[in-house]
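Archive entry. Fields below.
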Amino acid sequence: MYLQLDGRGPLYDQLTRALKASILDGRIAAGTQLPPTRELAQELEISRTTVLTAYEQLRAEGFIDGRVGSGSFVSQLQTRPPVHHDRTDIDAPSRYAQRVREVCNWDIPRLHRGLRYNLEYGYPMINPTLNNAWGRELARAAAYTRLNSLEAAGLSVLRKQTCDYLARRRGVQAQPDDVLIVSGTQQAINLTARVLVNEGDPVVLEEPHYFLAHQALVAHGARLVAVRTDEHGLVCDELPAQAPRLIYVTPSHHFPSGAVLSMQRRLDLLHYAEQHQCWILEDDYDGEFRYDAHPLAALRSLDEQDRVIYVGTFSKVMFGGLRLAYMVMPAALRSDFLGAKYLGDMACPVIEQAALARFMEDGGFERHLRMARKELKARREAVIAGLKEHARDRVEITDTPAGMHLVAWLHGYDAPRCQALIAHAAEYGLGLHPMAPLYLHTPERQGLLLGYCGLSVNELREAMRLFGQCLDHMELA
Amino acid sequence: MYLQLDGRGPLYDQLTRALKASILDGRIAAGTQLPPTRELAQELEISRTTVLTAYEQLRAEGFIDGRVGSGSFVSQLQTRPPVHHDRTDIDAPSRYAQRVREVCNWDIPRLHRGLRYNLEYGYPMINPTLNNAWGRELARAAAYTRLNSLEAAGLSVLRKQTCDYLARRRGVQAQPDDVLIVSGTQQAINLTARVLVNEGDPVVLEEPHYFLAHQALVAHGARLVAVRTDEHGLVCDELPAQAPRLIYVTPSHHFPSGAVLSMQRRLDLLHYAEQHQCWILEDDYDGEFRYDAHPLAALRSLDEQDRVIYVGTFSKVMFGGLRLAYMVMPAALRSDFLGAKYLGDMACPVIEQAALARFMEDGGFERHLRMARKELKARREAVIAGLKEHARDRVEITDTPAGMHLVAWLHGYDAPRCQALIAHAAEYGLGLHPMAPLYLHTPERQGLLLGYCGLSVNELREAMRLFGQCLDHMELA
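PREDICTED_STRUCTURE:
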């Protein structure tokens, strides 16, 4: 009998696959007796054991009947000819997936491949000493962690450390039971949408806003309402008359403008939420990174009505691939969040959590944080100095002594000219990123989101010099 | 001025909190000049620096105006009296959360606290040598991993290793681009529901079935249709005439009965899916653990229409707290799954993935697997021997040489009597778990789900002896 072995994996697997294929496509008809193992072994010049193993496997899978010795016969398997459909309708996914298709663009722009200086926002700075320090923490944690423990809320030692940290650094008083450990801010936004938002429910966003929150909320089917921000953050007087389900805000350092929500506005926002009986999601994505006084106390710390869902992240402070963040849940929603987390992915990985708890307890986390803050401050100053020297009055910086990025507003640029600038910069190996995608509506002015986290001070100096050249070029163009 | 310091954290924080509280509740009126720092320092018997720091913080947060020296005045903050609502309606969460409330029960049954022998299903066996071996892998991986890398699909080296493993052990031919690394089977089930199921869409489950799949699908709003299973697994002739969106099956080892889906039924199921243009979610949750021949080839390996979403888990093989599993995605759904994963939590933690890829490449994973299989086989045999000796003809075991659990059907038990048995066993320190919750409809017979993963051979012997005593007791009762 003709059998084509495909040469992948062990010989008995190849033989099993070949025989299966022949049986399924009818080349070996049902009822046929397979050749005795010795015979087939000789024919294929392989060991008899190999053939025996293959037959045994086929028998186990119901392809052949009969016992070794009494002969092996191909089972009566009823195979049917394939039905032919056009796939269009079955491939139509859920409404959720359809919305994901609308917001997600999977082609990484060719433009930003292999740039020398990419001022992209999002990646935390890498502390070169962190790899080994963290590796030691992980190994240490692995040694004593109960590997099977699955606490939906998160490891209690980490929740405890998180509470101490929040009280100390963010003025947030929380108990470990209020804390939920999640796989990054993105999951926090998702769980919040899951727990609070039905398809079509209105949700308020800042304009401009964090694009991944926008995308996640759209995917969930939220009806987005963008509310203007100014130098004091969200303009609370312009909150909609109709009550939204949820308000997503970044009070300590508005993303991306950097505006700090003023105390009066904080009180107004809390009052609005109370009046309209809606919830506030406070994304404190970089509250750790203020370079002047102490970080501002979180909105949550002023919340007496227990309407603020507070989110902070460890990934931004440590490294992007860590995927750990934390939420402070209002008491009324606690069991809903726990249920959504548990049914969603049960719990976060246990060893990371144990290692991080220990890292925080030992003060390694704070040391790392101080170091990161110092370095980020230097990078930030390099960008500002570079802009002053090379971009001069052609850009306007909205400036808060905080964070991992800056916004440079371009004077006298419209959208096409901004795109031209970005394209030109890419030719110089400089990665610039427009503000426009961070708006729900068309913005009235053009700007650039400058993430300075990923480049060293010297790289940033050079990047700013290049930026100046690009602006010069655009004036000539 | 009267200030109550709460003694939590640094002194300046306590002072800041105390002043804030007084300002917010109006005890210190807007416009009031705060006492000079030196004066307040003397009054409270604390250092002047502490007071200066507190004032600085209050100024930064907009609680007071004016510069140090010229005096500090309480800002004109408009605070409003709290509105009073009954919270009932705002606390009504999304429909998703309401369904979660229906399926999730958060009171861990007192019954199963502190049992000597808990035959609970779900926790993988712990290999005592794994802690250190895995710790070394993590430390090693941390040293060379790009800590910021965020691949939504999962680390490519791990996807490559997964493909090799699937081809070698499960007969599944997949390319790294077909693979999505997820945070456990639970997330795989969720993403599948997300991508395919709208509220109200029919989804087919086996009866009985894996309870967490049931709960997750209910939470998503799926309309569940339970189809009977027998000793050959899902009874395909009884699949509904109306096309479901999705069919959730456990073909290689039906959960919980252990039945292996026969080859004919596999072909019938694939044909049904093709005819009705629906998708199949193949949960191969313990395909690794067969103690006779090689594991059966996966349903996915027979799937020529690319309708099977295959899910396998690393957590079951390694340890529960790992939270890593993998999906093989049909080409038509690939970008939808990637989008849902990315917007859901962006990606799985990077170091774990790197460590696991290395562990698989070095053969440590296979070694661990062999060892686990050997040990589980011994435990399984201990349970069966124990049941034969102590439970005798009072129970019937559905027996496949596979997996991490058994089902023991109880002769002549109704639901209340089964509960009485479980309650009595708990008094003996023996944790028994009923089959009833694994059914959508009321089952016609009572049984117990015996998970033997968490106990040693000797513990299992003792547990079975106790079980026998409990059965004796029930006969006298």
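CURATOR_NOTE: The mean pLDDT of chain A is 89.
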